[in-house]
Amino acid sequence: IVSNGVAAALPDAAREGLERATRATIPDLVRLQRVPDHLLGSWSIALLLQLACYLGLMIYVRASLLLLYEARPVVATAGAVIVALGVQILWTPGARFLYDPPTLMFGAMLTHAIAKERTWELLPLLVVASLNKETAAVYVLVFALCGRGRIPRGTLARTVALQVAVLVATRLIVVLVADLDGPTSRHDNFIRDYWDVNIYRFAHASFWMHGPNLAAVLVATVLLLRKWSAHPLVIRASWAGVVVLFLATRPTGPSDLEL
What is the pTM of this model? Predict the structure, then answer.
């Protein structure tokens, strides 16, 4: 929607210039993806947005490493680059969708906002992240776990209730828009009919048969459990959110998975 909207808003000369640049820069990728001529402008913008999301991911991972682990700037920068490159290896082949890079970026942004205790940032971030993908709802749990003992109980309960209400309203709007559009695309049906599959897709059996994914989870688990109490609260709470998603998984998820 964003890509099409931006493409439609661009002056004809700017859109045509972008299309020419895309054909000249990455002609093999355009042919491989079989991009129709009338969608090349939107496709180019979508590609730029994905690259921007990877940049945003690196910025917020670096900021979180500096904040939570007091890493040296060079180490934090290297860690951010490793994360951005590593997800390319860890993703199950053929399982990446347009919403995946934004999901990573919004996750890093939400984690950083919770770590900085910027409660006022969370609500708009949750709305935008939920419009992208409903798994953003797990950060309400992360916020609630981090807020216990730090935020007055009544204030925390009201804040969490507001976050949940806004997320539900946001998802209802998405479902309504999908219903208005009709079942014209896989993603319409994906949102309306496969809500639970979309939430729990990464915990299917084939995930564990994909060697890099299994190695990444094992390494992350060992590193976390080695000195569990020494890790920042937001990191421990985030891992708890992953466990909740995993335990709630149906055994009949799709085979095209994401980490």
Answer: 0.76
